[in-house]
């Protein structure tokens, strides 16, 4: 179909990537976000090869090389620094045809925004209702504005306002039982090889450093906690020092060198798989449709895959918008649901939901062969639209 106008609610990774894809397909696009200014939640993000392939298909390959970290190896270590396994990632790159790129979220967001064109993005626009009829769909905003298009993409995140309209039921995010801290540090100050993604695990907790562009590491910590704990930014360094007391020296160095005021602290949630992702001319995309815990590093990558698949059906089929969206749903529902549930299971294992299972997992890490790890990563990556 040609000459369509798409309204996109939400200017996160999902909304912006979809905007780029649809704009490049020749469609008119309007992206709306309720924030006054974009401030990505989280410091870094690991974009696995399936996400990067989508960005490559949109012409962003060179830019990703510039902002991406050269992650050549990964290591699992015990919290007391025993090496469980060390994996060369080059065989993975050879198998799937593209390197993964961990990046700074701010740099990714700036790249996507610049590519989609800032003139296509309206901020400070809180969508409060969406209504469709035979000929189109209308979005209304808090300030009284309205806009109309042939289709509407709800890329409005895990707390999506549009989701109940699409699914016909309320589906509240589920607390995954742990808190994540994340930020960025200079590589020079760390005790880790600059091309290595290292993950320390123990006591049902995790600490990790991942190389991003500009000789920096994206770091994250995770620890199981009751819902509703809050610690002010200035106390976050001490909080981490207490939680990770006795852990390996590189973890202590990381805690001492991070900037607590620039360290995010998030309670992690996901979403039970939904019965449907579309209704007529309206499609849920990204976290609005399938928010996941970040333990597979796939939430943002899945939003990018959504964008590519949605665009492909719109431009290659010619029955109706609703028909193209239905095909998008068929292509995406199982893939995303499986990854949400897989990530949830892994989250439970990492964060000691049953410590017996977690201890067995620690034991199994040193038994795992490099090819098992590579094949597991490749399977997730090659399950995407560009395999
Ligand atoms: C700690 C953490 C680590 C992660 N690590 C990774 C990783 O390594 N790799 C990976 O691929 N993924 C990762 N993810 C997941 C990834 O961040 C998300 O899947 C991705 O950002 C979702 O993008 P989105 O565009 O769907 O939603 P969002 O980024 O949430 O964007 C939604 C946008 O919609 C706007 N909005 C909401 N409601 C309205 C409204 N009513 N009107 C207008 N605008 C509205 C919001 O302001 C927001 O800008 C991680 C997530 C977390 C929390």
Structure notes:
The structure is a single chain. With 387 residues, the protein is an alpha/beta fold. The chain has one domain: FAD/NAD(P)-binding domain. The chain has 13 helices and 18 strands. The strands form 4 sheets. The protein has a 7-stranded mixed sheet, with helices on both faces. Strands 7-2-1-11-18-17 form a 6-stranded mixed sheet. A hairpin with a 2-residue loop joins strand 13 (196-202) and strand 14. Helix 2 packs parallel to helix 10 (299-316), helix 4 (90-96) runs parallel beside helix 13 and helix 10 (299-316) runs antiparallel to helix 11 (321-350). The longest helix has 30 residues, at 321-350. The protein is globular and about 65 Å long. 46% of the residues are buried. The mean pLDDT is 97. Bound molecules: flavin-adenine dinucleotide. The site of flavin-adenine dinucleotide has 34 residues, from helix 1, strand 3, strand 12, helix 9 and helix 10. Residues 9-15, 32-35, 42, 45-46, 51, 126-127, 155-157, 161, 180, 182, 266, 286-288, 294, 297-301, 303 line the site of flavin-adenine dinucleotide.
């Amino acid at each position: 179909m040609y000459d369509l106008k798409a309204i996109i609610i939400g200017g996160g990774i999902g909304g912006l990537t979809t905007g780029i894809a649809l704009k490049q397909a020749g469609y008119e696009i309007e992206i709306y976000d309720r924030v006054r200014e974009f401030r990505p939640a989280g410091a870094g993000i690991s974009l696995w090869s399936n996400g990067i392939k989508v960005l490559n298909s949109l012409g962003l390959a060179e830019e990703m090389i510039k902002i991406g970290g050269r992650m050549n190896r990964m290591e699992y270590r015990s919290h007391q620094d025993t090496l469980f396994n060390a994996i060369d990632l080059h065989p993975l790159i050879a198998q799937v045809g593209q390197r993964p790129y961990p990046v700074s979220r701010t740099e990714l967001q700036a790249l996507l925004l610049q590519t989609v064109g800032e003139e296509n993005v309206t901020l400070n626009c809180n969508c409060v209702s969406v209504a469709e009829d035979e000929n189109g769909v209308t979005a209304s905003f808090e300030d009284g504005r309205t806009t109309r298009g042939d289709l509407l993409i709800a890329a409005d995140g895990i707390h999506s306002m549009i989701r109940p309209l699409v699914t016909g039921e309320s589906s509240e995010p589920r607390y995954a039982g742990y808190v994540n801290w994340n930020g960025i540090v200079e590589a020079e100050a760390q005790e880790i090889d600059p091309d290595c993604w290292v993950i320390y695990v123990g006591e049902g907790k995790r600490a990790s450093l991942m190389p991003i562009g500009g000789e920096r590491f994206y770091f994250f910590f995770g620890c199981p906690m009751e819902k509703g704990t809050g610690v002010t930014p200035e106390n976050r360094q001490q909080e981490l020092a207490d939680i990770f007391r006795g852990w390996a020296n590189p973890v202590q160095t990381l805690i001492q060198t991070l900037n607590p005021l620039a360290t995010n602290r998030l309670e992690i949630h996901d979403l039970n798989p939904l019965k449907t992702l579309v209704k007529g001319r309206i499609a849920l995309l990204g976290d609005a449709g399938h928010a996941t815990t970040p333990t597979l590093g796939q939430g943002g990558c899945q939003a990018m895959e959504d964008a590519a698949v949605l665009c492909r059906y719109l431009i290659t089929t010619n029955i109706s918008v609703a028909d193209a969206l239905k095909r998008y749903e068929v292509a995406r529902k199982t893939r995303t649901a499986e990854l949400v549930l897989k990530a949830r299971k892994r989250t439970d294992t990492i964060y000691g939901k049953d410590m017996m299972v977690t201890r067995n997992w620690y034991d199994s890490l040193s038994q795992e062969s490099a090819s098992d790890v590579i094949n597991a990563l490749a399977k997730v990556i090659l399950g995407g639209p560009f395999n």
